[in-house]
Amino acid sequence: MKFSYVATLNGTEIRQECTYHTTEQLADGTKCLRFPRGHYDGGRISLELTAKLDPETGVSCCTLQVQNESPQPVRLSRADVGVSFDTENFLLHYFHSDWGAEFTPRSQHIQREFSFGCVSGRSCKGFTPYAECDTGSGYYAMALAWSGNWTCTAFPWAESYCDNRPWTYCCVMGLTDGEFYHDILPGKSFTTPAVYIACAPDREAACLGLRRHYKKHLSPLSEEMFTPMPLEYNTWWPYEDKFIDEEVFQANAEIAKNLGFRYAMLDAGWFGEENEENTWYEKRGDWDKVNTKRFPSGMKALCDKAKAIGIAPGMWCEIEAVGRDADLNRTHEEIIAKRQGRSLGYVCFGSKAGRDWAMGVVDRILGEYGAKWIKFDFNLDPGFGCDRIDHDHGPGDGLYAHYQGYYQFLDQLREKYPDVVIENCSSGGLRNDIGMMSHCPVGFLADPDHTEFHLQLYWGSLSFLHQSCLLHFTWSDVLQNHNLGIACPIQEDTPHSKVDYIVRAALMGIPGFSYKLPELPSWVLERIRELGEFYTARASAFLLHGDAYRLTGQPLTCGQGERFPVFEFTDQDRRGLVFAFRLTGAPQSQTVRLQALEPQRTYTVAWQDAETEYQATGAQLMEQGLTITGLPEEGSEIITVF
Question: Can you give the pTM of this predicted structure?
Fold first, then answer.
């Protein structure tokens, strides 16, 4: 493997495979490789690729810096970073992504140049900024830390470079989108978003490296605040903005508290003047206006009342977005993102004025009202971004400046309110890239949450994210038809095994619940409480601090993919916690080889539902495997290996 890049400066493309470097050993053990190349424009413009290799996870953090020492501005319109390798068979794996279709797998045999990417302005609207290169003799997993537009390009090197290496291929990723450009002024430099690259013998080893690297180096989650890991209630799907008010919120918050939940989240519906002609979508941006018809006591009183019963309140806010009818369009026109003079429907965080306004809004929600969880949503496509020249960016890099400003805003917010959970959401999971998740502790996986789809998302997310940041609802009550057309998945006659199946799927990350809790059967509430107690007792060791292993392939919706998925979590004592799910159409049994156990140690393998157990050595469980049987369709089992 060699590190490579493709850059375009003043319209001239440069493709470089890095073959020599300087090496520096950093204080934390990181090995820093620098690959200089300074021949462009007589050496006055230098391009330096830096790869920081973490010896513990085996992951390299790669960036390209372009330094302009010429007397004129230099226009950068492409700067992609990646790897090159020798192989006769290059299979590229990646994920298509859209609303309700996040983490849908795709594969492509690479024989000539092939590319995929995003031009919607949201990193996961179209595809996920992640790729896997299967060479037959090695595996490379690559995650781009960027939340806007981007492109991944794979190509045979000899096709684009005059040499005699017919089996050398390259795969690079960057924020290229056909419209982006950044003018580097004399004496200034530009550094690309990072690409995190794991090299391993196989897919699971490479993905495990990325998960570990994210948790060790990138996750902003406060382990103290998430010990034990929390259960969260959210009002959205059963009430949306049509049927929510302060009494409904309080009734659900009280039940959630009795079930052991730590947070109760008030979603959209709390802001803006009551107007039957306008929904929450048209009113976004007017966060200073509380809907006093639904919430006559105000937001501070609502938060105080929740705290009084012992549950922390949370609030939803689409801080970037500006609805069509929001007064903000007129009162703060100077911060509105525009392209060719037309509003793009969001506040440009590339402008300092936009960031200052946003901080004022959040100071009201978190400071004055006292919310302890804030969910930032983003339900629009910014496209190629703002081209205003009166903001703090140029006409070609407005989207780039917006996301850099949004990252800065999130970092300042975490520093200012260290006891508040910040949740990332974008029409569900359309901005869950490793860059955004390096600034937000928690990410919402998708709006649809029926269990089969949840398992598809969860498996895909574990390609590069750690389980401790993955939030999703159990299969919700809904007012719409997006969850297989089922409005209430849990009723009095629902099999107990299916309730466990629904809830346990979300217990592998941060579980959210979105039901009309007062209308759930009492036996269901009691079972949620019991499962929540199991989660609270085990989650810190296995989910917050432990490793995840995908022991099977990816389950997919519509009866596709793996039908009997199994996941294993190991803690620092090398104990195992196994979650198994039998989907519709699955075989009667599944045999999996466990991972990361102590080979000579004797383990007790105990089924939680079947209440049976036996003993085996770690070597037996890893080599001969564990057979799981006796589950009904839409059933589950948790097995402890202690």
Answer: 0.97
